[in-house]
Amino acid sequence: MTESQVGRPVSRVDGVAKVTGAARYAADAEVRGVTHAVLVMSTVARGRVTAVDTAGASAAPGVLGVFTHQNLARLALPSPAVAFLKRFLPVQDDLIRHAGQPVAIVVADTLERAQQASGLVGVSYRAEPPRVVLADDMGEAYIPPQTNDGANDYVRGDVAAGLAAAHAVAETTYTTPMQHHNALEPSVTVAAWDGDRLTVHESTQGISNTQNALMQAFGLARENVRVLSPYLGGGFGAKGPVWPHTVLTAAVARQVGRPVKLVLTRAQAYTSNGHRAETHQVLRVGAARDGRLTAIQHTVTQQVSRTEDALLNSSEPTRILYACPNVRSTQQAVRLDLPMGSFVRSPETATSHALESTLDELSYTLGLDPVELRVRNWSATNQESGERHGSSYLRECYERGAERFGWSRRDPRPGSMRDRDGLIGWGMATAAHTAGGRPGSSATVTIGVDGTARIRSGTQDLGTGTYTVMRQLGAEVLGLRLRGVRFDLGDSAFPAAFASAASATVPSVGAGVVRAATAARDRVIALAVADPDSPLHGAAPDQVSVGDGDLFLTERPSRRVGYRQVMRRHGRLIEVTSEAVFAPMGYSVGATFVEVHVDPVLGRVQVRRMVGVFDCGRVLNHRTARSQAIGGAIWAIGFTLSEHTLVDPNLGRIVTPNLSGYLVPVNADVPDIDVSFIDKPDPSSPALGARGFGETPMTGVTAAIGNAVYHATGHRIRDLPITQDKIIAALS
Amino acid sequence: MSEEDPTRRTVIKVGAAVAAVATAAPALPDVAEAKAAVTDTARISLKVNGVTHRQELEARVTLLDALRERIGLTGTKKGCDRGECGACTVLVDGRRIKSCLTLAVMQQGREITTVEGLARGDALHPVQAAFIRNDGFQCGFCTPGQLMSAVACVHEGHTGSDDEIREWMSGNLCRCGCYPNIVASVRQAAKEMS
Ligand code: FES
Ligand code: FES
Predict the structure, then answer these.
(1) Where are the domains of chain A?
(2) What is the SS3 assignment for A480-517?
(3) Which part of the chain is the 2Fe-2S ferredoxin-type domain (chain B) (predicted)?
């Protein structure tokens, strides 16, 4: 029996590098003669720069250059097609579009000297009062043109008729605040020029996009731009798009004639990488007496900037998930003097939160168990596209999750469960997120004369386990052991891959690896059956299987030959590069259950217990998949209970640009988490039955926490985050 | 070694200049004076993972930046540079500290241990091995700090229960969200180290 390389809970192959400090992240790159850049950020949110005094900074010790819009070279604005979403490059003109926009860049021989000199740059502004409060400008809402995440005004059926026919209707308003990624590694660019050749060490989720954007900004040929990103300290969308600081760093490096390193400060990251935009959501959901949905009307209004209007809190859950004939989803924008929003881990979470919370409200109106309400509206079909999901075991997720959690022992009456020192609440919700539906990726498989394989693809590993699962996929298809396969990534010299985003790595890069490995394996099989000295000589190629480093007859496994022998006789390496094939869109789902404890005096909410059961098709690696699930659940705790970026309403400046005023969960906030998988292959998957999964597990948990708080207290906190002051106000 | 040490006066002088810059920025009253002062450097020696590194440094250089940018030990990470995230945690004489919150000149004569100093050759420290076995990291960026904190947490005796581990490991943020696995790693390492 050959040993399967996928499915096993293999330890991360980059584990030793990460626990010994040997893994070099972008800021750790060894670049001879590197100098340091520090950004000077605008302190006003709207207006113009009237003067910049650079004399003091220029004369400070160690300073190599001080750059403003008056002396920085003119750069071409890269296009949105290469994920340069921002529609302007700062330090190119005097216009201020938001607070925390770069207005000057100081380069010095040491970091300390660059920091000191940056404080000597004097910037004068003609400031105008900014508008930064969503609630104040709701009247300005408009529907922007459609982007690739679906229609901004989507209709199916007749919502008015569906609501009129409903036995019960839940009408709700939910709001979610501005939130920030806060990847632990702030964004980094290290740029070095050699004549017209540019090498960049970049913390990016998409080296191809970075390469393309730099080519466009500087008018360079592809072979003249190399982008490296072997390790990434988390991304969560912050490093998905290409941002101006990358281009600016390369520009100043060229002007000072030295390699330059820029590491954003934590505060600068708050205005340089986008954020989860604040939303205001109105829902009307109608159901028949038996719980079947008759209509969903969901209007999402979110903040956009003055210069862009991408809506990244998209309403897929409303359009896709539940069987409902009458749906209208409207996505509106309000322009404010703030940075643009962007993708933040599991972008569908904001809308899913409102929908799943409203369903909980509906379940109380109907007197129906919230699990049962969801089971009755389950569908095997993507309700928006009308196509069947490749597979969907969501009902099994509900059933298994309820059992593991002990849901049947729940008394549904709010406030009915308590312990010695507080109120207990149990809540649940559906997890669902699109996965893939993005461009494909290429990979090259090289089989050496020693019978080992090296696989390369220009993808990234932002902590999700790309290094590990791609090696597993390659080994499985080739029939080699894990140690006989190496997988390299993070170099734009490798075949191009799609960004590590949109839960697309498995269906895009994984599929590219599977295709290249399949073609390479077939070439080795062809060699083995053609060689008169091979034990497999004369066999039909389709009668040959692979495994454990050997090729063998499927029907007579004792007739076998090792990869090593075949390749040694061949005497030359075999190399195959796969074409990029569009990655199909999958839908990974699950059921999440949460127990909270609420302190009625302090208003403190603690998550005590969590159960998540997920269907992401076949699980490639139970260890890394479980880690993605607990990571998502922990993000959900932050999303629901603490994370909230505060903006000064008059100045338009973020007042919590740090990790002490902006609270991400800490170890003590997180209970043990029970995670399990259905683990059945999706027949439509191009990656051995697996679907993308990374974004699914944050969804569901947020609403499950809110629903549990209601169950504990009898109060709905519809304005996130559910902080202590709101609980105390509700209970008193 | 005493020749390598800065005189006490040099340190104080440089320190005072740094303080002046910090409080006066961004509108510095006397740029010329501050400029002259901060070019002063100190010759110091730092003992890191048993190896003595002699450096000529401005007094304002943090231990973290000295390790990363001068000595070339980049295992220790900078997540915030202001004591909030724990990515920069190192051991100084066995005690865990945030290396972004101390100046290199203040740590002379102490034993500094970074993540690069945990393994003995190819043999991983029990805490390192436990983090791999329990998948105690994803991106790995918080990991050097988590590991150093974990070593101290075990030595401090704060591993009596999972709740105690959670509490005493809460100075190290992990944005990937590995906390349950970090707790399992520390629990296992504590057992092996006892
Ligand atoms: S870098 Fe020192 S605590 Fe964050
Ligand atoms: S492993 Fe990524 S921040 Fe902890």
Answers:
(1) 15-21+438-577, 31-129+184-234+239-272, 279-437+584-731
(2) CCHHHEEEECCECCCCECCCCCCCCHHHHHHHHHHHHH
(3) 42-118
pLDDT digit of tens for each residue in chain B (194 aa)?
333 344 333 333 443 333 333 333 344 444 444 444 455 789 999 999 999 999 999 999 999 999 999 999 999 999 999 999 999 999 999 999 999 999 999 999 999 999 999 999 999 999 999 999 999 999 999 999 999 999 999 999 999 999 999 999 999 999 999 999 999 999 999 999 98
This model of the complex carries an ipTM of 0.98
Q: Do A20 and B27 touch (CB under 8 A)?
A: no
**Using a 6 Å cutoff on CB, does residue B59 contact ligand 2?**
no
The matching CATH number, chosen from 3.90.1170.50, 3.40.50.300, 3.40.50.10490, 3.40.1160.10, for A31-129+184-234+239-272 is 3.90.1170.50
Work out the angle between the directed axes of helices A207-218 and A244-256 (0-180°, nearest 10).
50
Is A579 catalytic? The answer is no
Q: Which of A15, A61, A635 sits opposite B177 (nearest CB)?
A: A635
For tokens 């930046």, name the residue. B65
A23 to chain B nearest CA, in Å? 8
Does domain A279-437+584-731 sit in CATH 3.30.365.10?
Answer: yes
For residues A720 and A644, give the distance between their C-alpha atoms in angstroms, rounded to a whole number: 8
Q: pTM score > 0.80 for this model? A: yes
Would you say A673 and A629 are in contact if contact means Cβ atoms under 8 Å apart?
yes
Pairing of strands B41-48, B111-113: parallel
